[in-house]
Fold:
Amino acid sequence: MATITKKKPAAKPAKSAKPSASARPVAKPGRNGSAVKTKSVKRVYFFGNGKAEGNAGMKDQLGGKGANLADMTLVPLPVPPGFTITTETCGEYNDAGQKLPAGSSAMPPTLCSWPPAPAPR
Structure:
């Protein structure tokens, strides 16, 4: 009498948590050759004067230093106002040979409107 055994399905390769630089989405032209509008990406996060757009849980986006500066601002500890550029933007900048990523400007308009810190006493 023959014995029948079931084969186990092959294990799927593990997916990496973070996509590689080459896996970033690329803008494609529309049907009529015009550019497709892409969702705007937040590239700069501000902190200072007791307010911060980031927090300690955003280390993947802001890097360790940027996330911790935002968190210290929220505590509040005396942190001079500033901004953090996202790690994705830094990666795109390096991948493009130290050129600004497409769709970004040299200085975000919100940077000019960030309220100045009070003068130290």
DSSP finds three helices and three strands in the chain.
